[in-house]
Hints:
- It is a single chain.
- By secondary structure, the chain is of the alpha+beta class.
- The chain has one domain.
- The chain has helices at residues 3-21, 37-46, 52-64, 68-71, 143-152, 168-171, 176-188; strands at residues 74-77, 80-83, 111-112, 118-121, 124-127, 200-201.
- The strands form 2 sheets. The chain has a 4-stranded antiparallel β-sheet with strand order 3-4-5-6, with no helix packed on it. It has a two-stranded antiparallel ribbon with strand order 1-2.
- Strand 1 and strand 2 form a beta hairpin.
- Helix 2 crosses helix 7 and helix 5 (143-152) crosses helix 7.
- The longest helix is centred in the first third of the chain and has 19 residues, at 3-21.
Amino acid sequence: MSHRTLVALFAVVAVCLAAGCAHETGAPSAAEAPEGAQGTVALASASGAADPATVERGRYLVTIGQCHDCHTPLKLGPNGPEPDMARMLSGHPETLVMPEPPTTPSPWGWAGADTLTAFAGPWGISYATNLTPHPSGLAAWDEEIFVAAMRTGKHMGQSRPILPPMPWMNVAQMTDEDLRAVFAYLRSIPPIENRVPEPVIAPPPPGVASGAAAPADAAPGTVGG
């Protein structure tokens, strides 16, 4: 099994597990958004960046697409872990410095933070991105860059690969219109300052880099370095 196939497999596993742990977040609409969001939506509409219907369509897609599962940190609530909507879509908290991930060989193929915003696996270490329109988030992105990133699985559409568990290959199946609506919504939410750590990309497993297949009986946890 190739390194590329392994990464895709672990992406699917991680996304499925994340979905199983998810709560119904009910991302706020323009009328229900946290303090400051309504003004941002109005500004976007007034500037001609997006009309309210487009923003609402984007909110709907972000909600059913389970973006909150990884990009909104979990906090401990009265009924257990729940999305911290005060940090809505701000990604992995910069104050939560993660230790080195476990390296003991095991059938467990990946590890995740309690906040469900940081993940370690054969691909390396990935952190959920700040999707808010703050300079520490997507402020420098435009619609074209966002669409290119979702279509290619490359950061900003041209650089490093977007790592698991981000299911970009599923998002890439959206229409251009829907991707633009998602971006319009992300531009409308409150900007939150949060500088997410850079990902750590693991080298290909021994043998895979040279084109050889990984051992058939190797446990997932032993592949990927």
